Amino acid sequence: GAMCERGWDSVTTPGAVAGWVAMSKRFGKLPFADLMEPAIELAERGHGVGCIVADKWARQIPA
User: Fold this and answer.
1) Hey, how many other C-beta atoms are within 10 angstroms of the C-beta on 1?
2) CB 24 within 8 A of CB 13
């Protein structure tokens, strides 16, 4: 199945990236950089959040 992009199932764990690299080296057909391009783009440009999440985060900032 596809990797979840939203919610709790989208959270990764320490060591997961090393596992992805190992699997890519052993079984992959694409360069690892191509596989990680969507994640790199999100890390560089950021990702929008919904109004409810933005409001909850804003409430955590001290006045």
Assistant:
1) 3
2) no
